[in-house]
Write a structure and sequence with these properties.
Elements (H helix, E strand, L loop, with lengths): L1 E9 L8 H6 L1 E5 L15 H10 L4 E3 L6 E3 L2 E6 L5 E6 L13 H12 L17 H5 L11 E5 L2 E5 L7 H4 L10 H7 L15 E7 L3 E6 L13 E5 L4 H9 L5 E2 L7 H5 L6 E10 L13 H9 L3 H9 L4 E2 L25 H10 L19 H18 L2
Helix pairs in contact: 9-11
Length: 399
């Protein structure tokens, strides 16, 4: 329905109240909801992502300005002439927090675990580009040895793909492809991510996790690039309410928050200090229909609901953060010269067509249609969007 922009509030450490934070190099971050878990293979949420990318490191890192792949656990790599085989050379000094070296076998184990059907990882498809990845995940292939993931020696990882995939290195930024420590996972099972058990390989390690209160990460002294890590401590604060988190920022309890109440975005956009920053965020906000049962097994009804949304009005008067009307699924700015063609109206220009589809579906002016139920994340911003759509469907279609 809309393309997203990310709004940030950043506290400057030059402010007098932050002098204590400078000496200790401590940062307090608002993290939205409480993380469900910290297993990179299984998690799907943004609150988890923020923490996982500090606890674990994959084969590559992301250049903070260009987003180009930089060496991570892999110090170098080569690509075969046919574009299907990557050979990664791992760092000799890459270590887990328990002192074990990070090896190629760690990636073989982690990515095989991601694709194992019984694990039921929702992001398993991130590894479908690997030879036989999809077949193995769907249970059509039983032998994990046939996956295109090999470790000829502890520091060499060879990945064979189904087809040339120019963006493969970029995929490695995703948390589902981060390595996990096999012995720890197998010993502690579902409790392997608890602070007393977890073993990680990123710039930080997990020191404390108090549910619904605080998650504390400390600098990992075993990290191969520790000299470039300026922070000593990073505290992530789970705060369910957007307005509460913004108030915590203003009262100097937080140094960074991504949670800006929609109604306060215009206020912060007038900020001249640089505290408020708005950055492009590759995301598309949309609703899923449950097409397995009535009434949404009716394609005409789905079309009517889709075409009756005034996306331009939604971004201008509801979310108000510079978002773009979502007329396509893949957002612009994905690179590679790809410019998607709009498929949906950004305004109510197809309202008449929407009413006609509703009539053809058997519900003229909404008559005969039971109330539509929307399930949404209880974040305040999601609630406002749901209420806006509720009103549009009521006004435009009688639903």
């Amino acid at each position: 329905m809309l393309m997203l922009f990310r709004s940030l509030l950043l506290a400057f450490f030059l402010n007098q109240w932050a002098f204590g934070a400078i000496s200790k190099q401590v940062i307090n971050i608002g993290n939205g909801a409480e993380p469900k878990d910290l297993d990179p293979t299984l998690q799907t949420g943004v609150p988890e992502f923020h923490i996982l990318m500090n606890l674990f490191e994959g084969l590559v890192q992301k250049d903070p300005k260009t987003l180009e792949p930089l060496p991570g656990v892999a110090e170098s790599w080569t690509l075969s002439k046919d574009g299907k085989t990557y050979t990664f050379k791992l760092r000799a000094n890459a270590k887990w927090t328990n002192g074990d070296p990070v090896t190629a076998q760690d990636f073989v184990y982690s990515w095989t675990r991601l694709l194992t059907p019984a694990v039921a990882a929702e992001y398993a498809y991130q590894a479908y580009y690997i030879k036989n990845g999809k077949a193995f995940n769907e249970g059509k292939l039983k032998d994990a040895g046939q996956l295109g993931i090999k470790a000829p020696d502890p520091r060499t990882l060879v990945i064979t793909l189904e087809n040339p995939t120019p963006f493969f290195l970029g995929l490695l930024f995703h948390h589902s492809l981060l390595p996990v420590h096999q012995k720890t996972v197998e010993k502690f099972k579902v409790r392997w991510t608890r602070p007393e058990n977890i073993v990680t390989n990123g710039a930080f390690s997990l020191s404390k996790w108090e549910m619904n209160k605080i998650i504390t990460l400390v600098k990992n002294e075993s990290y191969w690039d520790k000299d470039k890590v300026a922070l000593s401590v990073a505290n992530f604060h789970p705060v369910e309410k957007t307005d509460t988190e913004e108030k915590m920022f203003r009262s100097h309890e937080l140094d960074i928050t991504n949670e800006v109440p929609l109604e306060k975005i215009p206020f912060w956009q007038k900020d001249t200090t640089g505290v408020y920053q708005q950055q492009p965020y590759l995301g598309t906000y949309f609703y899923w229909f449950n097409v397995t049962r009535p009434p949404f097994d009716n394609k005409l009804l789905r079309k009517a609901l889709t075409l009756s949304i005034d996306r331009e009005r939604l971004v201008k008067f509801v979310v108000r953060g510079g978002q773009l009307p979502g007329t396509i699924f893949t957002p612009p700015g994905c690179g590679g010269g790809y410019n998607p063609t709009p498929r949906l109206p950004k305004d109510a220009s197809q309202f008449t067509k929407a009413k006609e589809y509703l009539k053809q579906a058997g519900y003229p002016n909404g008559k005969g249609l039971a109330p539509v139920e929307i399930l949404y994340n209880t974040h305040d911003g999601h609630k406002k969007i749901a209420e806006a759509l509720q009103q549009m469907w009521k006004e435009n279609l009688g639903i």
